[in-house]
Amino acid sequence: MNHIRDSKIKHSEETNWYVITGGPSTGKTTTIDLLQKQGYHTTIEHARHYIDTMHNEGNSVKEIRSNKKKFQLGVLDMQIAQEGSLNKEDMVFLDRAIPDAMAYYQFLNLDYDEKLLNAVNGVSYKKIFILDRLPFTKDYARTENEDDQKLIHQLIIESLYQSRFHYRFCSGFASRRKSEIHFR
């Protein structure tokens, strides 16, 4: 069953990490890029990184995305490794985080597995910011459409709620001025 409340959630010790999340095309990476330019420690978005890595090995996006479980596990492994390498006391802004995988598992009709549940149980974040949806933009790595964008966005919200993570809704930080507020 995919409902996180069916497992025992025991988030790890507090971190000083802020998550920027939302469905596809909400301005997450743009926001992360602006924060990085202002000198903040940031992370990359792992689904795109996984696609780029596999593409460099000769696989097409279609091939990469065709095995949904393998794709999600590859992305989750990268996210787990990255978050495991961060210092809990450092202020870091993450472009998505481990809990996002719950929404994508649901979107792809995959059952939660032990790896995902253990990963979700083992993380904690200072704050999670869910960016508002923006007009959908298709690019080389996205296979979703606008209806998928809406569904994934809602699944992220529901997954965070069910797993008892604290979050707040934010408008996209498309301008430099807006990216300087709301993070303390």
UniProtKB/TrEMBL annotation:
Residues 18-167 form the NadR/Ttd14 AAA domain. Keywords: Kinase, Transferase. The lineage of its organism: Bacteria, Pseudomonadati, Bacteroidota, Flavobacteriia, Flavobacteriales. The keyword Transferase applies. InterPro entries: NadR/Ttd14_AAA_dom, P-loop_NTPase. GO terms for molecular function: kinase activity. This is Predicted ATPase/kinase involved in NAD metabolism.
